[in-house]
Amino acid sequence: MPSPRRIPLRSAVRAWVYDRVIAGMTADWYRNVLARLPDGARLLDVGIGTGEALARCADVVRAKQLAVTGLDIDRDYLARCRSALERAGLSDRVSPVLGSVYDHRGGPYDAVYFSASLMLLPDPAAAIAHVASLLSPQGRLYSTQTFHHRRSPLLEWAKPLAQHVTTIHFGRVTYEHEFRKAFADAGVEIEELTTMHSTRRSSYRLAVARVPDAA
Ligand SMILES: C[S@@+](CC[C@H](N)C(=O)[O-])C[C@H]1O[C@@H](n2cnc3c(N)ncnc32)[C@H](O)[C@@H]1O
């Protein structure tokens, strides 16, 4: 992993674009989820990205004394993540880890969080089932992301194109029935699906899920 001062220009630009386009919105999502966690919780953040969204919530992370493992497969984002965490004074609370969710061995965790990272995975159900096995008995799985209310072939076509231009993987256009199916296939129960913000076409929602028969 290159040190923050030696990040190649292209990598730095990718991470910068990401922060301009995404982090402002997802920081609010993180804040919503972090507010629900118990003090001292051990959190697995799947797809921490550049860490900017989490860094903007540094006050909550410190006040609650959270211990966060931030997982990501993108070296460019993780390089920026380390400097964002350092700037936010979170280096002792958040550990960035290079690796894929499917291979991660860690925990137990009190919470696993997918912020805009679940439905872009090749097999969301397998990822849910795997991280569910890393949860403590009282643990919960959280997910925040955009849902589209009606089928939009135009958007389904445009999203991959947007990824090509911006280098940001926006994931597939997600509809509620697909999201629910991923959890059902994983044998994990959605306890709550709250709308944080809604427009005519789409909404930002927060899901909380648990392993049945656990606490
Ligand atoms: C849209 S970004 C969201 C970043 C951050 N959670 C946020 O909300 O601002 C999705 C992130 O998931 C990461 N990702 C994609 N596949 C992954 C995998 N298999 N394991 C871990 N992270 C992955 C991407 O590299 C990217 O950083």
UniProtKB/TrEMBL annotation:
It comes from the Bacteria. InterPro entries: Methyltransf_Superfamily, SAM-dependent_MTases_sf. SUPFAM superfamilies: S-adenosyl-L-methionine-dependent methyltransferases. This is Methyltransferase family protein. It comes from Pseudonocardia zijingensis. The lineage of its organism: Bacteria, Bacillati, Actinomycetota, Actinomycetes, Pseudonocardiales.
